[in-house]
Predict the structure.
Amino acid sequence: MIGQPLTEVTPQHNPDDLLLVNRNWPISGEYVPADLRVTEIPGQVRKLRAEAAAAMEEMAAALRKETGKRLISVSGYRPYDKQSRIYARKLKKVGGVEALADEYVARPGTSEHQTGLTMDVGERGVEDNLGDAFGESVSGHWVRDNAWRFGFILRYQKGWEDVTGYEYEPWHLRYVGRAHAAYLHEHPMPLEEYLLLVREERLLRVLARRGMTQAEEPEETAEAAGTEEALPAIEDELPAMETVETDDDQGGEDAASLRDLRALRSA
């Protein structure tokens, strides 16, 4: 019915937009980003998608200039099979109790690390970067206050556990682009909730353009959501990245097509 603009109003499906991956919204085990590269910061598992990698490098340079500390990569891109092994180890460690394992480790297909847009970071010299120590470190405080400047959000914050499904993780950064990150810095909320606002906003725009409804202006929609600031304009949002390649028979088509977006999801 709406046709081509459908991808505009489904950013949660689109790897070049606000792709959503969580326990209730898995991604296919076949999905591998096409534009992965190794970031030029020290550490391990340093791959990210090209745009996120450049932003991470810029952020690491700014942190060192402003604090004298060095940001390191603890874990960037993580394929489906590696996530399977990590989950299996955690499950064994907690005596096979899935509820306990699920509190801290994503099941395969439900980890943001598979998107290539997420990195767990640390500070060189901090003993336990995947723990409270990083959150209390100089870099941890700086990242919390400044990551948005480079297009990153602190994905799992305190008080959001019921929405995100994860405990507080001050080291877990997700790239969403500068416009989205700036908005979420001013109006903190989980990505899941933000996507509801973005989808509504975009749908109203599409319908208004087609004369299908007397849609409100974006500013009015934002006010109805409890803020006076409009959501980022579509043209200001996450810039297009390379076409995503998948192993299915849709791989040769444009990643923005509805069929390719569906192919990203598990059956």
Summary: Confidence is low (pLDDT under 50) at residues 221-228, 238-267. DSSP finds ten helices and six strands in the chain.
